[in-house]
Amino acid sequence: MDQLVVQNITKRYSNHVALSEVSLTVPHQSIFGLLGPNGAGKTTLIRIINQIIDADEGTILINGEKLSPHHIGVIGYLPEERGLYKKLKVGEQLIYLARLRGLSKSDALVRIKYWIDKFEIKDWWSKKIEDLSKGMAQKIQFISTVLHEPKLIILDEPFSGFDPVNANLIRDEILALRDKGSTIIFSTHRMETVEELCDHIALINKSKKILEGQKKEVKAKFKTNTFIVEHKGDFSLDGENYERIHQRNLEDNYLETLVRIKSDRNANQLIQDLIGSTEIHGFREKVPSMNDIFIQLVNGGSDE
């Protein structure tokens, strides 16, 4: 069963439509990238899922059940605008937030100990939040998000404020949580993170969903039958079947040429046509990155 199903969600503010009939499906135990430019509607959708605000139209299902107040206990939410109490000490903060999520004090202490040992932050226990660096506070916020072992974890720009070492630490924890059974939705502008972590993606632009699917299938859909050839010695190709898009010089008199197949020829035939006129040292298909696809759709409009 899918972890989360969003059906025709619409949200309006006065004369502004924040979401327009958005539907998407988040598979169980997946890492799902919720993508889109600023103002697209991502945060509005996240707030509706978290029952912070209500949708005007549409339905949300969690594990096949209509979204209701008791689902708060199965969701962990890390907002982009972090919400820690600055005057509280770290230990007090974590216990308080764990109790809000329904944990007993004894259970909370056991789980908090696990995480502070894992993140090697035992000496932070009595520090006030306001005395922590941004990155340190981010760690506490992340721990508070996952303490109650939620089955659905929603992370809004989870790597904001982290240096590369701690970003890698959080990345590894996200993967571990997925492997233990959690489903993770994260909203981010970092396309390299999407490439690395996401199984599935959805792209929202101007209040509408314009793309959704498995990441590998999305990337395959946007292939342009273009190949990168590394070679020594220039070549010419039949203009009816091929287009030479770009060429650049590499070290030691090698060249890199971007070639698009215009006809029904395939990669093997392209290689055969190249062999007679140049010395090939590398050949691979140019697969579009998520950043390429994002820019193409946001700047060029909907693909649907």
Short précis:
The chain has 9 helices and 14 strands. The chain has 2 domains: 216 residues, P-loop containing nucleotide triphosphate hydrolases (Rossmann fold); 63 residues, no CATH class.
Q: Which SSEs are present, and which pair or pack?
A:
Blueprint (H helix, E strand, L loop, with lengths): L3 E10 L2 E11 L4 E5 L6 H8 L7 E6 L2 E2 L8 E4 L11 H11 L4 H14 L15 H13 L5 E5 L7 H16 L3 E5 L3 H7 L2 E6 L2 E7 H7 L4 E7 L9 E8 L4 E8 L5 H9 L3 E7 L4 H11 L4
Parallel strand pairs: 3-8, 3-9, 6-7, 7-8
Antiparallel strand pairs: 1-2, 1-4, 4-5, 9-10, 11-13, 11-14, 12-13
Helix pairs in contact: 2-3
How would you portray this structure in words?
This protein has 304 residues and is α/β, with parallel strands linked by helices. It has 2 domains: 216 residues, Rossmann fold (3-Layer(aba) Sandwich); 63 residues, no CATH class. 32% of the residues lie in helices and 30% in strands. The protein is built from 9 helices and 14 strands. A 6-stranded mixed beta sheet has the order 6-7-8-3-9-10, sandwiched between helices. It has a 4-stranded antiparallel beta sheet with strand order 2-1-4-5, covered by helices on one side. Strands 12-13-11-14 form a 4-stranded antiparallel beta sheet, covered by helices on one side. Strand 7, helix 5 and strand 8 form a beta-alpha-beta unit. The longest helix has 16 residues. The mean pLDDT is 90.
Structural class: alpha/beta
Using only C-alpha atoms, the radius of gyration works out to: 24 Å
Low-confidence stretches: none
SS field, number of helical segments? 9
β-strand percent reads 25-35%
Number of β-strand runs = 14
User: What is the fold named in CATH at topology level of the largest domain?
Assistant: Rossmann fold
Question: Shape, please?
Answer: elongated
What spatial order of strands do you see in the largest sheet?
Answer: 6-7-8-3-9-10
CATH class of the largest domain: Alpha Beta
- The CATH homologous superfamily of the largest domain is termed P-loop containing nucleotide triphosphate hydrolases
Q: What is the name of the CATH architecture of the largest domain?
A: 3-Layer(aba) Sandwich
Average pLDDT taken over every residue: 90
Q: Whole-Å distance between the termini?
A: 26 Å
Order of helices and strands: EEEHEEEHHHEHEHEEHEEEHEH
